[in-house]
Design a protein that fits this description.
The complex is a heterodimer.
Chain A (H helix, E strand, L loop, with lengths): L3 E4 L2 E4 L5 E7 L5 E7 L5 E7 L6 E2 L6 E5 L5 E5 L8 E8 L10 E2 L3 E5 L1
Parallel strand pairs in A: 2-11
Antiparallel strand pairs in A: 1-3, 3-8, 4-5, 4-9, 5-6, 7-8, 9-10, 9-11
Chain B lengths: L3 E3 L4 E4 L4 E7 L6 E7 L6 E6 L3 E5 L2 E6 L4 E6 L8 E8 L5 E3 L3 E6 L1
Parallel strand pairs in B: 2-11
Antiparallel strand pairs in B: 1-3, 3-8, 4-5, 4-9, 6-7, 7-8, 9-10, 9-11
The chains are: A mainly beta, B mainly beta.
Chain lengths: 115, 110
């Protein structure tokens, strides 16, 4: 049971380059999320997808775009990478239900450095 | 903006002692509360969740919730070196999103 799979695990980019981070889950979850984690700042939500076909901005969406390709896959794109986007990126998923207590399950993360 | 505050630590405890972690929050509409453990270089993993006032125990871990005072805590009994990690507090109000604290780093001294 793979859970949440993120690719790539590591990436180095030059300023201005673009790339897409991939995330797939095999738990049939309806909601998916992208976070970034910087030292001393915890997890900050970039974008989320409450259900297939919907996406919404989180706390720090600037410089990013997302696509919910299908129920399993949720990708994060950096169109023109900036050094401030150097971070660890986590994808998460959950089977959200109103009033429910379902936790989010995290992938192993993508460590992204932008020079 | 939901604020979730945690003491960043590091919290250093001797092996076998109780580690006590606290988390306060500002949104009174918060309904569910989660504690995640994150080892260095790894992803967060769920330890416990709680949504009713009072205590909830799971093995060596006890979560405590007091909605009137807007705090949630985590006790780790009989602390082991393997408990050395960063512990993240998270909460959910009535929507799809979790708000995370910055985490408390715990070091268990052998």
């Amino acid at each position: 049971n793979a859970g949440v799979t993120q690719t790539p695990k590591f990436q180095v980019l030059k300023t201005g380059q673009s790339m897409t981070l991939q995330c797939a889950q095999d738990m049939n979850h309806n909601s998916m999320y992208w976070y970034r984690q910087d030292p001393g700042m915890g997890l900050r939500l970039i974008y989320y997808s409450a259900s297939e076909g919907t996406t919404d901005k989180g706390e720090v969406p600037n410089g990013y775009n997302v696509s919910r390709l299908n129920k399993r896959e949720f990708s994060l794109r950096l169109e023109s990478a900036a050094p401030s986007q150097t971070s660890v990126y986590f994808c998460a998923s959950t089977q959200y239900r109103d009033g429910g207590n379902q936790p989010q399950h995290f992938g192993d993360g993508t460590r992204l450095s932008i020079l | 903006q939901k604020e979730v505050e945690q003491n960043s630590g590091p919290l250093s405890v001797p092996e076998g002692a109780i580690a006590s972690l606290n988390c306060t929050y500002s949104d009174r509409g918060s309904q569910s509360f989660f504690w995640y453990r994150q080892y260095s270089g790894k992803s967060p993993e769920l330890i416990m969740f709680i949504y009713s006032n009072g205590d909830k125990e799971d093995g060596r871990f006890t979560a405590q919730l007091n909605k009137a005072s807007q705090y949630v805590s985590l006790l780790i009994r009989d602390s082991q070196p393997s408990d050395s990690a960063t512990y993240l507090c998270a909460l959910r109000s009535n929507d799809y999103k979790l708000s995370f604290g910055a985490g408390t780093t715990v070091t268990v001294r052998a």
